[in-house]
Design goal:
alpha/beta; 434 Repressor (Amino-terminal Domain); six-stranded parallel beta sheet; homodimer; Rossmann fold; 3 domains; 345 residues; four-stranded parallel beta sheet; DNA-binding; elongated
Amino acid sequence: MGITTKEIAKICEVSRTTVDRALKGRGRINPDTKAKILTVARERGYRPDLLARSLITGKTMHIGVVVFDIRNYYFAEMLNSIENRAYEKGYYVNINLQEEDREKEIHIIDSMVDRRVDGIILCPVNKGPEFEKYILSLPIPVVVIGNFISSQIPFIGINEKQAAYEAVDMLLKKAYSRIIFVCPPLVYRDSKNLYSHEQRAAGFQERINMESTIESVLITGMDYINILKNELKSAAADSKFDTLEQPQLSNKRQRTAVFCSGDIYALTIMKHLNEWGIRVPDDVGIMGFDNIHILEFISPQLSTVSNAVESVAITAVDNLVDLMNNKKPEKIKFLEHHIIGGSTV
Amino acid sequence: MGITTKEIAKICEVSRTTVDRALKGRGRINPDTKAKILTVARERGYRPDLLARSLITGKTMHIGVVVFDIRNYYFAEMLNSIENRAYEKGYYVNINLQEEDREKEIHIIDSMVDRRVDGIILCPVNKGPEFEKYILSLPIPVVVIGNFISSQIPFIGINEKQAAYEAVDMLLKKAYSRIIFVCPPLVYRDSKNLYSHEQRAAGFQERINMESTIESVLITGMDYINILKNELKSAAADSKFDTLEQPQLSNKRQRTAVFCSGDIYALTIMKHLNEWGIRVPDDVGIMGFDNIHILEFISPQLSTVSNAVESVAITAVDNLVDLMNNKKPEKIKFLEHHIIGGSTV
DNA sequence: TTGAAAGCGCTAACAG
DNA sequence: CTGTTAGCGCTTTCAA
């Protein structure tokens, strides 16, 4: 491509070592030769070959990011913040999408190692002790976001279970008497890392179990829209009936809220509710999880749980850089979550 | 890190060339030695150092992607599709966000060249002959998306002007008699590459100019919401008046449509319209541009223009790979756009 | 203040 | 079928 230190050395009639010293500005060097070298370098547009440098230093200043896909707004925001932070710290990012494919995830990680990234930020689809062993065997540090693997591998996230618990608590305070929890098919929990959704489901369950009078439903599956439809039709009817006949009681009897393990579920459901003529929050309350940015365009304003994406991203980069420099940050870092009021419950 | 070919060679008591042959599976080699080498390689977990390989081959199999930011859904979708396509073709992607910062853009491109990416996909914020010269001087190919630079630099996109023209045409067919075009501050057109928005504005203008009875307004600025508010208040009043008093004429007189140079503008405006009590499309029509995925969650369904993000991404990768292999694709490639009906006009 | 030499891990041309 | 040699562009002792 361009000119090399070797050629500059030849032109200036000095050794490559001297050229290096001039370029780096360190070590003793005659000001005149230095000036000459720098002039030649500038004139000829010298640019260091970072590949060659990395081969020696053992550092590429690249971090790899592996996530599901970035049409998923949560990951788009995550990647955006990761890139910003990494850039600030002098690192570049390699992105690969594993698309919830376990094999592909391994292949990508291996290839990142081969490409000599200095560390990896991973939202894993794999799980279990074997995968844990695999990650621990890698020659570079990995920090995990989103889905937990093991306490041996640094994890950054929020306390999902606690957050879900609090969300349900809030719904109960709002006098909902029937709570439907919607999340992805947990039947795949053995073959996919569904940690975050499992935790949310657990938080929901834990809080629900404390109540004896609250009816609860767990919908977990591809067909959640249809299942929900059946669940809700009666509820809406009841609610409307109440409103007409016994307005005082309408807030007490059979008020249903749908709590979704992810804003996208909530939005999809809201769209259908709209089609079905079920009003939010009058007929049924709805609550999401993640607080993705697109909510700002949706009305009514979705009640949700803030997932601290940006802080997770920043902390992930910071902790990874620490690890790459042999500092040991905390293994598990829970960042603050917040319940976002909204107007759908 | 792991074991090297040199060490394998020593263990197997052969030369590194032989090890290479075994590993690559090419060239004549004794099946036994080959088997032995492969066994050792597997046992010791040999992995090639791609850095070292790249240093020799001159190819890193990486492509750089430079866009504004990926909280912008258009770019998130673009990057997603670029990564998918690149991965299919055996390339990896380096992502950098230039955040509409002209200096940063140059710095990023320079650094990508230093890092020896094989080519770059760029949505430029810079423009003009100097920048064109800079891009052409790079030792690697660049393909441009979104904002045009010059006919010398490969560009992939849709015919924005034509698409805007058709969109306005459609609005006119729907009997709108007043069309407001909203786009980002074109006052920055000298310091920023606003090509796509300028083209859309031009298409709008061209079609409008063909009509003598159509009123048109161009709103371009940060404060577009307030400006629009004033423009619309009267319109809504008129329209409502019509509906009440002269229903037959309501489709004819002063029907206003807001055509936005980007779906995000349209969504932001819709949100405000909602707050102002102005109904869409009854009181005012609204049309976006881009057809970003989040529209699927918005109701009413936004009328918009499909921007062919995925095909642009795919074509960009394909053309870049062609360029890297010294094939010369077309300099300018317009992909098909579509007007998406929706229910907001 | 400067330079020689060695080497990062791999590839490739050529010779045997 | 196998090995030798040279080198990618840079960094880093160590010696002068």
